[in-house]
Specification:
Keywords: Glycosyltransferase, Transferase. Pathway: Purine metabolism; purine nucleoside salvage. It holds the Pfam family PNP_UDP_1. The chain is α/β, with parallel strands linked by helices and 272 residues long. The protein has one domain: Rossmann fold (3-Layer(aba) Sandwich), CATH 3.40.50. Helices cover 32% and strands 24% of the residues. The protein is built from 7 helices and 9 strands. A 5-stranded mixed beta barrel has the order 5-8-7-6-9, surrounded by 4 helices. Helix 1 crosses helix 3, helix 3 crosses helix 6 and helix 4 packs across helix 7. The relative contact order is 0.21. The structure holds hypoxanthine. Hypoxanthine binds next to strand 5, strand 8 and strand 9.
Length: 272
């Protein structure tokens, strides 16, 4: 808590107490939304006390504060993955910082493999539930009651009202055909899955698989924040479509979907 408070105090001093209402975490290859923000303040993670620093060169590692669709937002440009070697506490540190800066809701995006045979490359999937197959979670350890309850409920981890708004926005934007809905399963990575693992993940009820998001969502629910999370389907992982994954192809598929994701998130924000 003291580390959180020091990080928050630093950001507040740098930004004249800018108070964002929405926090946004952008996934791999999905940074374009940041370009739409009318930026008022930009802070390198490296300058924020106790903030983890991105190990991935391509991740910018900056906190952006500004306005998007008429709403005050804070955008994490570069997220922290468990496979990079961070502790769960480090992975979710930015979520807790954003909450203490004043956010009332959290939007998250990620790149994910499609397990549902109805999905196509570059579809969006509105996450309506998740399965955590990471070996830990950010709430393990003594509970800090100032952050949230010991046993947070996960009945509607993905906010039904935000999901309804995202669905309506997809229809209004003519994106209904490419906007799916489903269950995201988080795995540790960093390797992709074997064919048998993909079959297993489909069997246990997942529609898409990725290596992020679930820790942040657990921390957000612990903090009482409503969450909207969207996967971009970057590769197809069901029988008949499975082939070796090339990271360049994943980034290309993310780039194709990015304008739709950006439009969708902006529309949901504008509907506030
Ligand atoms: N598996 C895990 N993570 C991923 C995948 C995948 O197939 N695609 C994008 N992120």
């Amino acid at each position: 808590m003291q580390h959180l408070q020091e990080a928050v105090a630093f950001i507040q001093t740098q930004t004249q107490h800018f108070a964002p209402s929405t926090g946004i975490i952008l996934g791999t290859g999905l940074g374009a939304l940041a370009k739409e923000v009318e930026i008022q303040h930009e802070i390198s993670y490296a300058d924020i006390p106790h903030f983890p620093v991105s190990t991935v060169e391509s991740h910018a590692g900056r906190l952006l504060l500004g306005t998007l669709s008429g709403q005050k937002v804070v955008v994490l440009q570069g997220r922290f993955h468990y496979y990079e070697g961070y502790s769960m506490e480090q992975v979710v540190f930015p979520v807790r910082v954003m909450k203490l800066l004043g956010i009332k809701q959290l939007f998250v995006s990620n790149a994910a493999g499609g397990l549902n045979p109805e999905f196509q490359i570059s579809d969006l999937m509105l996450i309506d539930d998740h399965i955590n197959l990471l070996p830990s979670n950010p709430l393990i350890g003594p509970n800090d009651a100032q952050l949230g309850p010991r046993f947070p409920d996960m009945y509607a981890a993905y906010d039904p009202a935000l999901l309804a708004r995202a669905r309506a926005a997809a229809v209004a934007l003519g994106q209904n055909e490419t906007t799916q809905r489903g269950v995201y399963v988080a795995v540790p990575g960093p390797m992709l899955e074997t064919p048998a693992e993909y079959r297993y993940l489909r069997t246990i009820g997942a529609d898409a698989v990725g290596m992020s998001t679930v820790p942040e969502v657990i921390a957000a629910r612990h903090l009482g924040l409503p969450v909207l999370a969207v996967s971009v389907i970057t590769d197809l992982c069901y029988p008949g479509q499975l082939k070796p994954v090339v990271i360049a192809d994943i980034l290309a598929a993310a780039a194709v979907a990015e304008p739709r994701l950006t439009a969708l998130m902006k529309a949901v924000l504008a509907a506030e």
